[in-house]
Each structure stands twice: as C-alpha cells, then as structure tokens.
Amino acid sequence: MSNIDLNLPIKPEMPARKDFRIGCIGSGFIMRDCHLAAYRDAGFHPVAIASRTYENAKAAADLRGIATVYRTWEELVQAPDIEILDIAFPPDRQLEVVRLAVKMKHIKGILCQKPLAMNSREAREIVELCEQAGIKLAVNSNMRFDQSMRALKAILDRSYLGQPVLATIEMRAIPHWQDFLHKYERLEILNMGIHHVDVFRYLFGDPHKVTAVTRKDPRTKFPHLDGITQYTFQYANELMATSLDDVWAWPGEGAEKDIYIKWRVEGLEGMAQGTIGWPLYPERSPSTLAFTTKQAPNEWLRPTWDEVWFPDAFQGTMAQLLRAVETDSEPEISGRDNLRTMAAVDACYKSIEEGRTVLFSEVSHSFL
Fold first, then answer.
1. Which residues lie below 8 Å from residue 251, measured CB to CB, with a gap of 6+?
2. Is position 217 within any domain?
3. Which candidate, 287, 279, 338, 327, places its Cα nearest to that of 140?
4. Beta bridge partners of 234
5. 257 and 135 housed in the same domain
6. What is the pLDDT of residue 2?
7. Which of 99, 112, 245, 274 has the most other CB atoms within 10 Å of its CB?
8. Are 273 and 290 in contact, with CB atoms under 8 Å apart?
9. Same-domain pairing of 188 and 319
10. pLDDT digits (tens, 9 = 90+) for 228-281
C-alpha cells in the first residue's frame, strides 16, 4: 500500500462571504452555461446581466434566475449596487468596459476573460487602470482550475516527480472561432493555445526561451497567421514544456474522429499523465490523472473526482477574485500576473514571425 497522500487539493478555496453582488456582462455560451451554472453551484450571487443583445441577456437571466436585465452594459456598470463585474465580452471589447468601470466607486473587483486583450499594450492599460482605481483585477484563465491541473500542481509541489525534465500537451480539437476573431491575424495561440501557455506558467513559471512554429488550418477560411501550432518553452534548468495544438484534427465526413487532449510530465523521480475532459462537453467527463513515483515503487496512483473543467472550474476563477476583494490581497490569477502570460504569447508570435528562438526577456522587459 502506498504512503503517498492522494488527498490532492483540486477544489478552489472559497471566500467567507459569497453574497458579493455580481453584475454579468455577456450572455453567450461561456456566461450562460459556464459562469452562471458554476456560480449557482458555488452559492455566489449574480444579480444583474446585460449583453450586446437585450433578448439574449433576458433569455440567460430567465434560464439562470437573475433578477435584473439592463438594456446596455453601460447601464449595468453604472448601477450603484454592483460590486463585482464579470465580463464575458470578446477580448477586443474588454478595454472599453474597464475604462468606464474604473470610474465607478462601487466596483470592487473585475473578472476579465482571457485573453485579457488582443495585444499586450491594451492588456497593460487594463491592468494599470484597475491598479490606479484600487480595483482588484483577475483573469479567467480557467484551465488553472481544471481538476487534473490542480492535482498535478500539488504533485509537483510535493516533489513526487522530482525535478521536471519534460512536459507535453497534445490537443486534437476542432474549435469554433467566434466572428470577432475573423478580423485578426493572430488566432490559435492568442485565443486557444493561451490556455496551455498560461498553465505552463502556472506549473513551472516563466520560460527562459520560446520557440514556436505554425501552419494555416485548411478548415479555417478567413485569413490567419497561426492555425495548427507547436510551441516549446525552455527553462533555465533545462526543462522543456511543449504543446501541439492541432485544430485540424478531423478531415471531415467519411473519416472517423479522434478528438482529445492529453498531457504528460516526466521528472527525475517519477512521471504523471492524464487527459482533459473538455472535448466531450456537454457530456460530464472528468479530466484524469495517473502518476508513478519512486516514493511508491512499482505502481500507478490514480486519484479520481467527479468535478469537470466546464463548468466547475469557473467556480475557482470567481472565488479567487472574491477572496482577493475580501482580504485586500492580490488575486491568484491577477491582471498583473497575466501580463506575463501575454508576454509568453508575444514571444511565440515573435518566434513564428522571425523564424528563431526568442528569449522571454526580449518581449517581457518592454511592458512588465
């Protein structure tokens, strides 16, 4: 019998106060079926909603039991009873929402979507506006609250794997690219791969060097720089962390599908591997983890849980903001920290555009 502690902290730490009055901006899938479903289960208190289309906001409010629907997001932001803003607008719209929100004395915290903005300059402006106004800013980098990632972080922190040597993510998926993305050249890394970029930072910290390559996705007809991508982070201790983001994944009718996300971390003392359940959504498919370590020789340890990434992880992204407001501390996924994720994304694009390995410091020093 193993003496390894399998009590892994996958559930988010909740705030003592759950009745912060949350105003929700946006009524699409992420807000309607992820944020609001997770908040209901956590006991949080969304009291108002607004969206680009009133009818969509009203439908989401009716579905999730939200009392007040505003005609415009500007009206919601200015409503004096709103304490927390939960923004689920496209990232190219978040800056204008924040510019108004920071003028409101009643706003205590803001949860923005990832990416924080479509470029690092606007992301930094969002961060600085919130800091100047004394408003806690968090980013919805929700893969950090995927249960297998939380468990893996605990395993690494407990040194069950020893010093990490190689980490990999392999994603085979077919995303739906929202209409607002069609006018932007940067596509996969900024809007989907950013999950993997951020989770590498969560697990291992900032990279020393970044190398990225890409080719266009034949299925995606609008112009784009990065379709199918592969990027590798190299660390000062020689750890390599690499992700293959395959958004082709299935040629189409007449061929069988094989959709999945797998990950693996190998260390000097053990290794861990698992899957992310998201590709099977809306089926409730928990992510998985199995690990082996010299501290428990010759066996695989397989902790399990019932929670799933979508929507359960969204409890964590709001909880960490509410705790920060409650305790006057920095959110776990703060806007300031997220600038480093945006810098890593920029390093990937610089590597692609210049055809070379890029030092993280080349991009980070300019705006961090």
1. none
2. yes
3. 338
4. 209, 240
5. no
6. 65
7. 112
8. yes
9. no
10. 999 999 999 999 999 999 999 999 899 999 999 999 999 999 999 999 999 999
Specify the pairing of strand 84-87 against strand 240-246: unpaired
Q: Residues in the chain with pLDDT < 50?
A: 1
Q: Which amino acid is at 151?
A: A
| Residue 5 located in a structural domain | no
Count of domains for the chain: 2
Tokens standing for residue 247: 């958004």
User: What is the domain-level CATH number for residue 52?
Assistant: 3.40.50.720
Q: What is the 3-state secondary structure (H, E, C) of the chain?
A: CCCCCCCCCCCCCCCCCCCCEEEEECCCHHHHHHHHHHHHHHCCEEEEEECCCHHHHHHHHHHHCCCEECCCHHHHHHCCCCCEEEECCCHHHHHHHHHHHCCCCCCCEEEECCCCCCCHHHHHHHHHHHHHHCCEEEECCHHHHCHHHHHHHHHHHCCCCCCEEEEEEEEECCCCCCHHHHHCCCCHHHHHHHHHHHHHHHHHCCCCEEEEEEECCCCCCCCCCCCEEEEEEECCCCCEEEEEEECCCCCCCCCCCCCEEEEEEEECCEEEEEECCHHHCCCCCCCEEEEEECCEEEEEECCCCCCCCCCCHHHHHHHHHHHHHHHCCCCCCEHHHHHHHHHHHHHHHHHHHHCCCEEHHHHHCCCC
Residue 65 has what pLDDT?
97
pLDDT for the residue numbered 3: 80
- The string of pLDDT tens digits covering residues 48-96 is 999 999 999 999 999 999 999 999 999 999 999 999 999 999 999 999 9
pLDDT at 368: 66
**Per-residue pLDDT, 1:** 44
